[in-house]
Design a protein that fits this description.
Layout (H helix, E strand, L loop, with lengths): L11 H18 L6 E6 L2 E7 L12 H13 L8 E6 L3 H9 L4 E6 L24 E3 L4 H15 L1
Parallel strand pairs: 3-4, 4-5
Antiparallel strand pairs: 1-2, 1-3
Helix pairs in contact: 1-4
The structure holds zinc ion.
Zinc ion binds next to α3.
Length: 158
């Protein structure tokens, strides 16, 4: 039984998740929790980011927020419609909030986050009826690779 939809996945999903995994490794190299995100419109990458709150002294510098900011600047638009966000870890409450504000069409995440995941784990924020944006989401894409990266990181930290 899965706590989140694993709707049919388009072939590009795994390719983009591999890109997000590469970005997550950059976070790991900087000593940050390894999470990476890439925002895609059509087959074009319009934003990317990796987790960097410690290095940038910015509590909001999660991979998703960094990617959305870059895309907003590049598109000169605060609405990022018709885009898909790929992220290696299920987003937190802050990031789901930003995703909804940005009107992201579809979210694809890798590893679920049982403790803090705000899509389909700790809370089901993406399905909250007070939010007037319908987000499509899929989880578990390259889940094992995404969670293995996190497990390795926290094992080394101990
Ligand atoms: Zn977040």
């Amino acid at each position: 039984m899965t706590p989140f939809p694993r709707v049919p996945i388009v072939p590009a999903d795994e390719d983009w998740m591999r890109t997000a995994l590469e970005l997550a490794q950059r976070a790991e190299e900087a000593g940050e929790v390894p999470v990476g995100a890439v925002l895609v419109r059509g087959d074009e990458r319009i934003g990317q980011g990796w987790n960097r709150p410690i290095g940038s002294h910015d509590p909001t510098a999660h991979a998703e927020i960094v990617a959305l900011r870059e895309a907003g600047r590049r598109m000169a638009n605060y609405r990022l419609v018709e885009t898909t966000l790929y992220v290696t870890l299920e987003p937190c409450i802050m990031c789901v909030g930003a995703i909804m504000h940005a009107r992201i069409k579809r979210l694809v995440f890798g590893a679920p986050d049982a403790r803090c995941g705000a899509v389909a784990s700790a809370v089901h924020l993406a399905d909250a009826d007070f939010l007037n944006h319908a987000l499509q989401y899929t989880g578990g894409v390259l889940e094992e690779s995404c969670s293995a990266l996190l497990r390795r990181f926290f094992r080394q930290k101990r």
